[in-house]
Design the sequence.
């Protein structure tokens, strides 16, 4: 018998289907708050929870086996849900289901059964239901072990006979072997969807009757490639009034001439030229700004159009977004961003356009018929538009038509995506800084582009190695980051922090672009610089914010000069004496360097021929390079003819004003002898001593000059193959063909939905259906995927363990092939996927590993060393062999490590975000709980935990001073560790308690006075949750006890069950722990979105009763569970940086 899972919105429908499927085994799941088994043997689950879908499949795998067939049974009589509800109740659950099934390799058929997809037999269309076609059609393209079907049933109530006939028909359909993806059933027939090729008669040029002379037409996505092509066609056909709606504004018209003169090939210039061309044809053109999905913004934009042009005659909805990625790595915000213009935008137009239009034309895609890999959201959005157009055509005046295009060859989203993937972003707006070609906005993210041609080429051409390699100087990155953040902030003081260099930027043959992407993060912006397009490797990362600190007091230049008497060097040629770089004339700026004890003062003067640079380059890269790196002789033992130092990063750069031509640089140096690292603090002032910039902890590393300029080892990444998109574009629609197709379509008044494609869609679909996983080539690429330029070669698995692990990773992460050097996190891995990974490892290898293993074994090659080949015996791990210590970041020898201590559930994966962001030389370790892998009993007291962890720490750091950071319950353990060290005479220089409540505060009941005094601090969302919380934890247990009903245990994975056991042991231990006073200093981090126990305990969270030393308290704006997420992560890093110097780690 087959194994079925029926996920149903109504339990009655599920039972009817289960009866029809008898005698097969059927497991039923219906809606509930969380996953669990009911007394009647059915399951409850939150359909929108990825965890619950994974838990259901985990239960199936460990009990009766994974299902042969999963049926999602929608309530056919619910009517058409709103698009928002459909996303949450239907689309997202289907994506979650496929992500859960994607982790296995069991052949599975998935069927969605609902209504309103086809309109067969005159049935009402429900456009929002068509969102289901996205996951249904794309899943088989991405998972070779999954087949899918969408079955449309009548929504109308049927007679008893017809209802029974249909139930039998549905059961037969579900059991049938068929390649039909979309099926409609009625009591009398079975319908399938097919595309039928129909040649349309050609039209004479200029004979487009669908366009009115002086007509008013709104085009959404109006500044996009296809939008402008269509606008041009309308303007060439008739004299019209065009309203082009776009999310981005064009620059003001008085700047157009200068933009065209500066860079005529930029996207902004191309748009300006196109608008001028439209006007030259005699049409009136206005650009209106707004998001089509924002009804308020759209309504305001339409008001402007009507005021200027009058009522609309037609609408062409061409707005859209593409963001291809495997379904396994798709996130909810990313999917909503793609769906928004297609779904919310279409509905907003329908609601706000009140005129009786001649036509509403919607631009959809063949993706809705094909289901292309990486496009679950894009396919769903286009399927919605198809159904919407058909539904609107039956109720609205005028004509509604939807056109399913394949890719246009030269313009449009596909062409833009190919351009972005292969060459980088083509900016849409000009920048004020001459080093930038321009910038573009994509939601909250702003991306600048620099190609270093023309006036800015000196940044590369004057910074060349003696071997002829042109490099962008590290100070060039600093100026670009400053300029990008200052674009709309003018002369405000700016602070750059956590500035980390990951690889150099070299001048290569052909066009080479650097992209600087700025993303808001709390009160700051994160920036990432990369080359090679959207999939290129990061080169520089950091953070920028407006500097709130006051400008430092004036520097006493004369006093520094008086101290610096060890050596006085006057550069005869104004250049730094070294044997590695061939600097250009702008770098001839050093006048004099005076050295003292650990400090120097460098006098610089920019050649008068280049003083014009200073109007734009506020931190002139050539001057800054010499000002920060020109005193390397301060490094103890350096030989400038042999030792080559390169920049590693800046902890902080504060910019208070523009750099003058005459500069004094006060440099202070510290170095870790034997590590090859040197640290500089630099203060930059004018000749009067006024400070315009201050730099903290500029880090340089000694390297082998022969390999210093290699692009650097990169983490392996797999990406969607750009050549496939290039092939599609080569077969794409030419612009002239596209606009001719519009005329032919509009000349056929009966057409509502048309596939306008330059290739045979049925043949295309057949090729996709027949596609199999291709073998890995010698070059390491797989059909559909390739390695990015400059990354390590693909390394195929060789051992049995490696092959099994590679298969698991490929299933989990949605890739067709994974090499043994590929990194789990770089391929999109996260803690949820980690739980499923180790569940699969436990099944395949009969070995339990803690999640923290992913820190030490992030590649298949490393992980394979920890498991045995299937079939071999796995040696048990004894408690004496096991260590709680996990290295998150090795840092640099000689630096004091920070040891993070787990929370109540024992895992340490939560600390990865901190370890990734802390300065690179900082060693970071974490302590995981005994028993977290299920192979040992958890420790039962705080004292035992502290003793175990101190013993492990001493293996790495035998003596103090120590730095501890405990999260949640880990802070209690950290306190006990620091208290014991104090008794032993050892120093704890930093103890950070991250949202750790002192145990007495948890034990003490909350009084009415506590509630009265702190009620105003409770966030509003907690009040909204209060009724459900009271029901779940107070009233429901009492009601169920009175009724004699007992909840069956929730099914958990082995990893989750182990964490549950650790949490129970920790809770018992904390309840029994009695806090003792200790003469230590503490840093307390408090999450302000907190429960009453935390709020009533004050900023010190109750620790002020026991800590006899100094307490520093910081608040972060987050809930307890989200402290290590932005924006609180940045606040946590700032608090850590402030605490570390006092610990002697500077």
Sequence:
């Amino acid at each position: 018998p087959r194994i079925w899972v029926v996920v149903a919105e109504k339990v009655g429908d599920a039972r009817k289907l289960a009866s029809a499927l008898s005698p097969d085994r059927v497991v039923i799941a219906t809606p509930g708050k969380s996953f669990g088994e009911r007394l009647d043997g059915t399951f409850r689950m939150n359909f929108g929870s990825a965890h619950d879908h994974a838990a259901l499949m985990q239960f199936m795998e460990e009990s009766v086996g994974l299902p042969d067939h999963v049926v999602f049974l929608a309530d056919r009589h619910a009517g058409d849900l709103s698009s928002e509800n459909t996303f949450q109740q239907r689309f997202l659950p289907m994506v979650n289901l496929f992500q859960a099934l994607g982790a296995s390799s069991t052949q599975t058929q998935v069927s969605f059964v609902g209504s309103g997809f086809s309109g067969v037999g005159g049935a009402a269309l429900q456009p929002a239901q068509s969102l289901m076609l996205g996951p249904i059609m794309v899943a088989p393209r991405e998972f070779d072990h999954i087949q899918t079907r969408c079955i449309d049933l009548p929504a109308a109530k049927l007679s008893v006979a017809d209802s029974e006939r249909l139930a039998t028909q549905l059961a037969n359909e579900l059991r049938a072997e068929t390649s039909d993806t979309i099926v409609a059933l009625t009591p009398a027939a079975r319908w399938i969807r097919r595309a039928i090729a129909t040649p349309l008669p050609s039209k004479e040029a200029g004979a487009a009757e669908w366009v009115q002379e002086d007509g008013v037409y709104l085009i959404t996505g109006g500044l996009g490639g296809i939008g402008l092509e269509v606008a041009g066609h309308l303007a060439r056909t008739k004299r019209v009034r065009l309203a082009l709606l776009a999310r981005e504004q064009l620059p003001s018209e008085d700047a157009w001439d200068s933009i065209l003169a500066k860079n005529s090939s930029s996207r902004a210039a191309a748009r300006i030229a196109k608008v001028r061309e439209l006007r030259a044809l005699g049409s009136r053109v206005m650009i209106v700004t707004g998001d089509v999905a924002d009804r308020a913004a759209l309504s305001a934009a339409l008001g402007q159009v009507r005021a200027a042009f009058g009522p609309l005659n037609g609408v062409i909805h061409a707005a859209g977004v593409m963001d291809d990625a495997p379904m396994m790595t798709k996130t909810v915000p990313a999917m909503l961003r793609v769906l928004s213009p297609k779904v919310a935008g279409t509905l907003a137009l329908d609601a706000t356009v009140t005129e009786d239009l001649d036509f509403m034309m919607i631009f959809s895609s063949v993706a809705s018929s094909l289901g292309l890999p990486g496009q679950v959201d894009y396919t769903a959005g286009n399927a919605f538009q198809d159904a919407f157009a058909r539904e609107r055509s039956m109720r609205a005046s005028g004509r509604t038509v939807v056109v399913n295009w394949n890719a246009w060859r030269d313009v449009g989203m596909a062409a833009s995506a190919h351009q972005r993937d292969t060459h980088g972003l083509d900016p849409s707006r000009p920048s004020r800084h001459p080093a930038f070609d321009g910038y573009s906005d994509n939601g909250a993210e702003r991306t600048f582009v620099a190609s270093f041609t023309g006036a800015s080429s000196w940044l590369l051409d004057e910074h060349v190695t003696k071997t002829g390699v042109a490099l962008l100087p590290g100070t060039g990155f600093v100026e670009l980051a400053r300029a990008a953040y200052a674009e709309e902030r003018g002369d405000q003081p700016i602070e750059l922090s956590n500035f980390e260099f990951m690889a150099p930027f070299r001048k290569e043959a052909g066009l080479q672009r650097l992209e600087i992407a700025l993303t808001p993060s709390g009160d700051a912006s994160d920036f990432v610089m990369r080359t090679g397009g959207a999939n290129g490797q990061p080169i520089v990362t950091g953070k920028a914010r407006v500097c709130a600190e006051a400008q430092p007091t004036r520097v006493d230049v004369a006093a520094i000069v008086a101290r610096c008497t060890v050596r006085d060097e006057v550069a005869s040629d104004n250049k730094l004496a070294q044997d590695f770089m061939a600097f250009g004339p702008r770098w001839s700026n050093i006048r004099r360097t005076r050295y003292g004890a650990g400090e120097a003062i460098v006098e610089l003067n920019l050649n008068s021929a280049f003083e014009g640079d200073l109007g734009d380059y506020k931190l002139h890269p050539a001057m800054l390079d010499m000002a920060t790196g020109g005193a390397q002789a301060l490094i103890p033992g350096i030989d400038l003819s042999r030792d080559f130092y390169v920049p590693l990063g800046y902890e902080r750069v504060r910019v208070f004003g523009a750099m003058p031509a005459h500069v004094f640089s006060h440099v202070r140096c510290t170095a870790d002898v034997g590590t090859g690292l040197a640290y500089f603090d630099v203060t930059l002032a004018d000749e009067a001593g006024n400070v315009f910039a201050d730099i903290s902890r500029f880090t340089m590393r000694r390297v082998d000059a022969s390999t210093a300029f290699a692009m650097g080892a990169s983490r392996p990444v797999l990406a969607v193959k750009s050549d496939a998109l290039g092939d599609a574009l080569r077969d794409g629609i030419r612009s002239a063909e596209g606009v001719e197709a519009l005329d032919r379509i509009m000349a056929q008044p009966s057409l509502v939905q048309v596939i306008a494609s330059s290739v045979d869609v049925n043949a295309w679909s057949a090729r996709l259906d027949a596609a199999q996983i291709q073998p890995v080539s010698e070059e390491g690429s797989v059909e559909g995927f390739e390695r990015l330029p400059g990354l390590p070669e693909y390394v195929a698995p060789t051992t049995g363990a490696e092959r099994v692990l590679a298969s698991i990773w490929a299933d989990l992460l949605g890739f067709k092939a994974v090499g043994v050097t590929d990194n789990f996190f770089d391929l999109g891995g996260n803690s949820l996927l980690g739980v499923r990974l180790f569940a699969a490892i436990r099944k395949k290898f009969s070995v339990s590993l803690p999640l923290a293993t992913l820190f030490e074994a992030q590649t298949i090659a490393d992980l394979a060393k920890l498991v045995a080949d299937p079939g071999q015996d796995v040696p048990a791990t004894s408690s004496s062999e096991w260590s709680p210590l996990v290295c998150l970041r090795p840092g640099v020898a000689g630096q004091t490590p920070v040891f993070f201590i787990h929370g109540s559930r024992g895992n340490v994966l939560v600390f990865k975000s901190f370890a990734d962001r802390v300065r690179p030389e900082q060693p970071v370790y974490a302590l995981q709980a005994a028993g977290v892998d299920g192979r040992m009993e958890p420790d039962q007291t705080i004292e035992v935990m502290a003793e175990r962890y101190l013993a492990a720490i001493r293996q790495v750091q035998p003596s103090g001073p120590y730095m501890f950071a405990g999260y949640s319950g880990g802070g209690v353990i950290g306190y006990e560790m620091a208290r014991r060290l104090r008794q032993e005479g050892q120093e704890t220089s930093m103890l950070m308690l991250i949202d750790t409540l002192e145990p007495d505060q948890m034990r003490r009941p909350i009084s009415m006075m506590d509630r009265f005094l702190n009620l105003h601090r409770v966030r509003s969302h907690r009040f909204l949750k209060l009724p459900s919380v009271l029901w779940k934890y107070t009233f429901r247990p009492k009601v169920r006890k009175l009724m004699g009903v007992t909840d069956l245990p929730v099914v958990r994975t082995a990893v989750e069950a182990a964490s549950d056991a650790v949490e129970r042991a920790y809770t018992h231990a904390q309840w029994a722990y009695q806090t003792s006073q200790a003469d230590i200093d503490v840093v307390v981090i408090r999450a302000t979105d907190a429960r009453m126990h935390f709020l009533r305990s004050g900023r010190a969270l109750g620790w002020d009763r026991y800590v006899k030393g100094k307490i520093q308290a910081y608040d972060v704006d987050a809930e307890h569970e989200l402290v290590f997420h932005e924006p609180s992560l940045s606040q946590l890093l700032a608090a850590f940086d402030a605490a570390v110097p006092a610990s002697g780690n500077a």
